[in-house]
Amino acid sequence: MLMTVNNMKEILKVDDLCFDYPDISLLRDVSFTVHEGDFLGIIGANGAGKSTLIKLILGLLKKDSGEIRLFTDKIGYVPQKANSFNTDFPATVREVVMANLYKSVGLFKRYKKTDEEKMKNALKRVGLEGYENRMIGKLSGGQQQRVFIARALIAEPELLLMDEPTVGVDAQSVHAIMKLAAELNKQGIAIVMTNHDTPTLVKAANKLLIFCEHGNSEYVARADLTMEQISEIFAGGRAHNHG
Amino acid sequence: MDNIFSYVFMRRAFLVAAVIAAVAPCIGVPVVMKRLSAIGDAASHSALAGIALGLVLNSNPVIAKILPINPVLGGVLFAVIAVLGIEFFRTRFGRFSELAAVVVMSAGIGLTAIFSGFITSGSSNLSSFLFGSIVAISDFELYLTLGLGAAVIVVSMLLYKELFYISFDETAAMLSGVPVKTINFVLMVLTAVTVSVAARIVGALMISSLLVIPVAAAMMIAKSYKQTMVLSVVFAEIFTIAGLFASYYLDWRPGGTIVILGVVVLIAVMLLSKKNKS
Predict the structure, then answer these.
(1) Which residue from B176, B224, B227 is facing A102, i.e. has the nearest CB?
(2) CATH no. for residue B112?
(3) Which of A86, A219, B63, B241 is most buried, judging by how many CB atoms fall within 10 Å of its CB?
(4) Span B81-89, mean pLDDT?
């Protein structure tokens, strides 16, 4: 495991995290740190525990042992599109995006006029300006995913957790979503992303957490490894020191 | 043809029906969107058990004098216990959580059958709750419906954005700080109250239809959650008011007339909206 030393503010720190499902041993001593401005790519085979790790960070699952420390409460979450909603649900893009203003609006209170501006601004950031009155279920997979990114952005997150955001979308949309993630990262949002498309994620990330075949994980501080080197780590080899 | 509004009981029935029609979709929309329609059935059948118990107690002159319980109030109590029971069973059935509503509904039917055997003051009383009645609404039931109906509308309007969010994406709602468990509990209690007060006029066997059919019709044409809510209320008002007129002049039972009218309109909306799409 490698650690970087820099002056950037820590956003997320995970130490020796372990988690098992009742019959499956999954995460063993996972450790990594996400700083302000980082783009952490989490790669690994299906069932390696990538989405489980995101759920543990979000508090949707309870860890067995180890530490997960979040240094911000401004966390955005972009789910896997296919699992996240019923496309026959009669909701507009406006309704879906504005719903995530709950934290700032509060219980029983209604949206203000400025909230409408926030919603339009969030849609503009994801390239969906003017889509607010469209029904989300009628949009393409890529557009739906960008609506979910806008929903996360409206709460002005410092950390954006994206769980397989390109699953079920066409190649053009994959490119658009990855480009958007890189832009948001440049704007100062720390990103943690899982993605089955390893080459695309390696290209976008500055840090990698690689779930190896033997159930271990390797934290690589800089994503300037070749695909061969990544495959080597993936197969159970030691991480290369690039820190 | 006589004037339908010349009778006090009809004016009262229209008032109660209009309130129920406004209340049912407020609860029906989130219930349908969360795919919890079976809860309406479970709550209404359990309410029926409470109503039957109320009738049993009322039919005993000694108990009725000491503890006069309105059957509708008994229905509210049992329906609330039923939705709490559903929550209890739901967490224990894991992925087969839909069994919870069926178990509670079965208990409700079983208790109704047992209690009905002890009603001595005429079985027509229970029948009026099973299929609905417009002539039997007492002063107390009128005020209870108006009071609880207003409470349900106010609470569901206050929790409008929370109910939308937990219906659309419960995980995201929880992550953004919505008290999901509390809101779900409130929704369940509101459902219990709604089905109980509506049982008198629509009938316990049909009230869940009034929760679901207007929403199903609205979903065919609505282009947003807000429109679904508004159209559901419009459809429910049309079904109940037109259904009451029809039931009066055709001498049909009001609950059945309202529900059948709703189903006919739903099919018509389905066919028309399909035509529009193609």
Answers:
(1) B176
(2) 1.10.3470.10
(3) A219
(4) 88
